């Protein structure tokens, strides 16, 4: 039986209005402040929430509870008003709104919007990626989005976590028709309840039809064009991207989608080398011609709390105002992210080259959990110690050269000698996928979805940032 606890909130900081942002008339428009929640246990001891592993970082919003205080005039008398339990993921956006001079009403409206979203049951752990089993419920008036090159729906998972409703997703790769159909089936299983229609045609074919049935002026349009010809692994021998006619026609189709659909916000994700391609230039030119403000950069998603080193080109463009990419946050090691899953994973044994990599590591380091790849690496296995993000997860990790399932693709070595095989669930967590996402049974299909996906935990931060700017710049 679960033991009850007595909950007592810490006091609101004194003179909070002195620290608030001042409007031109001298009236405070509010103060955002951190606090801790104290829970007195039945044994008399106190526990402080959110729970944090190690020291509490004063600069990490996920190490604190958050409140917002302001004053409102009632019958000519100023009275204090306090809003508590603000999601830490909203803190950066609230600060941005204050810096941009947003009104108190706009800030409070955004806070209420952020608080209306379902939060993770694990929000008491100092992480900034979602791992909730609770699937978000969206209001009827949620912003809508269209996704091109959707894959299994990584970007859509991030969208719904940010309160955005995907309504159309285009997904078909004629070079892998069976895999595309299997991925589209999984996409339908996960997002049909949001009213999302999956179109199993190429983006080029949809563009040729004039985007019939697509809503005009959607809130969001996202594209993750096929990146194989620009990836580091594919072009390592050539030393440069091998751009094909399919890449160019895909970019032309994206440009046409921008012109015809006129989204409020356009986003794009791809491998870093895509920024040097003619395809990317075609898309940039279309955005410029249509009057969009554009911001893009190569980011390492490990800097945004993803427990994986994953460098990607990310672009965000919009009309009427400038949206910045979200700020980084505290990195997370792979072990911290999946420690609760490891003992449930199947037992395994290290291959010879994995054992050699382990022995090499232990000659100069104290024993610590290691994530050791079974595939890739011509002479020795790649590995990562517990405190670091894992290496980039690729689709090829889950399939052999014939496209068949790999039963084992990476192993976890623990200091007590136990070896576990990294599960699909563990790999999905390292990719930032929420645990409500349902995978197919086939490892090759599930692994392809993981490897192809935009990490939803990063996507949520990207779209939450875009949402905050929309509040200060309404339609």
Automatic annotation (TrEMBL):
Enzyme Commission no: 2.1.1.37
User: Which UniProt keywords are given for this protein, alphabetically ordered?
Assistant: Methyltransferase, Restriction system, S-adenosyl-L-methionine, Transferase
Alphabetized InterPro entries for the sequence: C5-MTase (IPR050750), C5_MeTfrase (IPR001525), SAM-dependent_MTases_sf (IPR029063)
List the PROSITE patterns.
SAM_MT_C5 (PS51679)
Catalytic residues (UniProt): 227
The keyword Metal-binding is annotated on this UniProt entry = no
Gene Ontology biological process terms, A to Z: DNA restriction-modification system; methylation
Specify the domain of life of the species encoding this protein. Answer: Bacteria
Coiled-coil spans are none
**Is Transferase a UniProt keyword of this protein?**
yes
Record-level Gene Ontology MF annotations: DNA (cytosine-5-)-methyltransferase activity
Enzyme's top EC category: transferase
| Record-stated family | Belongs to the class I-like SAM-binding methyltransferase superfamily. C5-methyltransferase family.
What PANTHER family does the record tag this protein with?
Answer: TRNA (CYTOSINE(38)-C(5))-METHYLTRANSFERASE
Q: Would you tell me the protein name for this molecule?
A: DNA (cytosine-5-)-methyltransferase
Species of origin reads Nostoc flagelliforme CCNUN1
Biological classification of the source: Bacteria, Bacillati, Cyanobacteriota, Cyanophyceae, Nostocales
